[in-house]
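Human: I'm a chemist; would you kindly supply sequence and structure tokens for a protein?

Assistant:
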Amino acid sequence: MSKREDIRDASMALSMDNGLIYTKLLGWIDLGHAQANDARRLKSILLEEQGRKFFPEFNDWYFPVDYYQEMGKNEKIFGLQFEGRIGVHSPLMVKSCLTWEVKRRIALTIMMKTAYRFEAFQESSLFSWRSDSGFSGEDMVSDLVGFYRIFGEGIDPVILAQPTTKEYALWIWDYYGAIGTFKNKEFRPLLFPSPSPHSKSSPRKGFLPSWLNYIKPLSDLENNHILNRYQNEPLKDLFTDTNRINQELYVSLRKRGWDVTNNQKNTLMPPNIHMSEHTPLRVDYFTIDNDY
């Protein structure tokens, strides 16, 4: 949940891993979302292809991908630092030996579908009574900015978005109100025009600039580039909707440093407990058909 005191100046936009800035071309950007640790981890997984295996039923090689988005806080328990998180996990299988261009499209597809589910989870009654984070106006575009910082090319999109001074950002906040009160369920910027003394200004949806729109998500999942995973096996028909990827809710309590191996960030899935896991539909051979 973004607050007024989170607002930062343009001069700090590239040196901070949290906070809120206002930009001329993309509106509000959450620097925590735009830090893109999730995208950085996903890129490593797609490049390394660890655990790839041949599956005869698909006549192809696949490797596991665990992508997640989460929220929570850190607590000190008996002198030890622990991380408490709740989030959305997408357990998938991705076809091996694809081109980097295709892998970038796969990564964007995974991020977009998971981010939407995560925001919907935050918008649920479980959290909405105390937080306006679900589909907050800056979240989706900030996720996209973070994705392009890792998977894109050229100048950092935070710079291209033209961050404003803290004074200007505070002026926008005080005139329009908290960004969390404005909901945005699209990967498009929500822009807040400079307030006019002679008329009431309202926010408007903007369009993505070319430098934040040249990687396209997959149009559908029929080509088997991405498959859902169940019990470490690729599965085509986990859902009746073939374009739906598996997204499991989980809770996690882990000791700080779980994601570092030999002083390097690893790509492991955090220790967790899944809630209401999806399972394949089973045919009931003992159902009596009343038509006979």
